[in-house]
């Protein structure tokens, strides 16, 4: 029986590329939205979900951090995918022909310098692969798409300009989610523990909650805040720390965190990807 991995976007999207690179044994399942991707895993239509959460140029992917805690899924792995942005056009077109380039709102700022240099106007599309498909169907040499080489091959487009991203190490980080966690898993290298929490309404609660990680020598690699239910007074935090919940230092830090919070939920335990450290060098 074939295993499936769901991703947001159409075939040829960078999420599809992430699936091909990291889970080649799973059949890719395209989904229109992140919500649809999560639901496909929840319902059992897919075994895993590939969710983009941040880009080294653009920053965090909007709304994803607020979706993950309510998804009912668990992070079981992470993947760092090198994002090469290419200008795609119909056969016979050249860069000089292109007046408009279509791409997702996240991709446009990643190649703003190239677009400005060639006087190409960026046009927002719901998905980069969809932009490629629509450019191919129009057959208009003035319209280009900002997408992957994978998309060019799928939709029969010509790569007019390769690797036009502004930053040479442009990378998107994905988390791989499943219905069931595996807290017994240990990677060959460092482990990462992800969780969400809300601090109690007391003075310096966040400062005190974070103190337990410092005093126990636990490295916190990520701390993101976002509103809950559109309420300015209700803030939830998404955090990642190095280590496994069974490690004594992590246990002690989480115990201190629990004292200063009114809600803590473990989101996942997974091996740190090698590229997590490569991109910091």
From TrEMBL:
GO terms for molecular function: prephenate dehydratase activity. It is an enzyme of class 4 (lyase). InterPro entries: ACT-like_dom_sf (IPR045865), ACT_dom (IPR002912), Chor_mutase/pphenate_deHydtase (IPR008242), Preph_deHydtase (IPR001086), Preph_deHydtase_CS (IPR018528). It holds the Pfam family PDT. The keyword Lyase applies. It catalyses: prephenate + H(+) = 3-phenylpyruvate + CO2 + H2O. GO terms for biological process: L-phenylalanine biosynthetic process. Residues 4-179 form the Prephenate dehydratase domain. GO terms for cellular component: cytoplasm. The record marks 172 as: Essential for prephenate dehydratase activity. The lineage of its organism: Bacteria, Pseudomonadati, Pseudomonadota, Alphaproteobacteria, Rhodobacterales. This is prephenate dehydratase.
């Amino acid at each position: 029986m074939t295993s499936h991995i769901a991703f947001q976007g159409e075939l040829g999207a960078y999420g599809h590329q992430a699936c091909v690179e990291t889970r080649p044994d799973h059949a890719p399942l395209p989904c229109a939205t992140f919500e649809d991707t999560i639901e496909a895993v929840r319902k059992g239509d897919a075994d895993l979900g590939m969710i983009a959460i941040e880009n080294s140029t653009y920053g965090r992917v909007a709304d994803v951090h607020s979706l993950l805690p309510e998804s009912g899924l668990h992070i079981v792995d992470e993947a760092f995918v090198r994002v090469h942005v290419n200008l795609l056009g119909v056969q016979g077109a050249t860069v000089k022909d292109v007046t408009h380039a279509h791409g997702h709102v996240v991709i446009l700022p990643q190649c703003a310098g190239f677009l400005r240099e060639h006087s190409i106007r960026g046009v927002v599309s719901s998905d980069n692969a969809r932009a490629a498909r629509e450019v191919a169907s129009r057959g208009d040499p003035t319209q280009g798409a900002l997408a992957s080489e994978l998309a060019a091959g799928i939709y029969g487009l010509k790569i007019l300009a390769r690797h036009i991203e502004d930053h040479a190490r442009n990378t998107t980080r994905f988390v791989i989610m499943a219905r069931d966690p595996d807290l017994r898993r240990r990677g060959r290298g460092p482990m990462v523990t992800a969780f969400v929490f809300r601090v109690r309404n007391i003075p310096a609660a966040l400062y005190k909650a974070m103190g337990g990680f410092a005093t126990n020598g636990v490295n916190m690699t990520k701390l993101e805040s976002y509103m809950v239910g559109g309420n300015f007074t209700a803030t939830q935090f998404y955090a990642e720390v190095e280590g496994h919940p069974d490690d004594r230092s992590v246990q002690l830090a989480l115990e201190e965190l629990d004292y200063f919070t009114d809600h803590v939920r473990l989101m996942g335990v997974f091996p740190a990807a090698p590229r997590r450290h490569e991109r910091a060098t």
